[in-house]
Amino acid sequence: MNTAALFDDARARLTAAGAPREALGELVVPRRILGVARAPRIERRGAAWHLGALLLTDDAVLATGEIVRARQEARRGYTAESQRQRSELAFAARRGGFAEGETVHVGWRALSVDTPDAPLALQDGIPSIRWSAAGALMPLHAYLDERVALLLDPPAGA
Hints:
This protein has helices at about 5-15, 80-95, 140-150, and strands at about 20-30, 40-50, 55, 60-65, 65-70, 105, 110, 120-125, 125-130, 135-140. It starts with a helix and ends in a 6-residue tail after the last helix. The protein is elongated. The longest helix has 15 residues, at about 5-15. Strands 5-6-1-2-3-4-7 form a seven-stranded mixed β-sheet. It contains three helices and ten strands; from the N terminus they run αβββββαβββββα. It is α+β, with helices and mostly antiparallel strands. About 25% of the residues lie in helices and about 30% in strands. This is Glutaminase.
């Protein structure tokens, strides 16, 4: 089965089961007005099924970027700069109109199913995926089967 057919099959299964989707967002830095900077916000760009290293929309396959939960701004002390940056993204999502606690994917990028592009690859002619930075390639059909099953029937407590 080719790569596009594998994704079409996954879409059909997810749609038929009514699987939940998560929001896609894009960070927007507004222009300055009279030299005054305005706070960045994340604007909604659609929704996708989150399948581990991939996001699957009705008509595209995306590589995941950062995942944040929208929340209101609050004064906090941060022990790490990376923690402060993630909080700023969460605040930007809330400013962009996402509901409190809503999951938002930011920094995703479109993948081509015709020409393998990381994390997708061809290994011995078999569509495959590198599901983590340190992980080995895994056949795409097995990966999609596993991820679709987890999305449709998550483990207790997930």
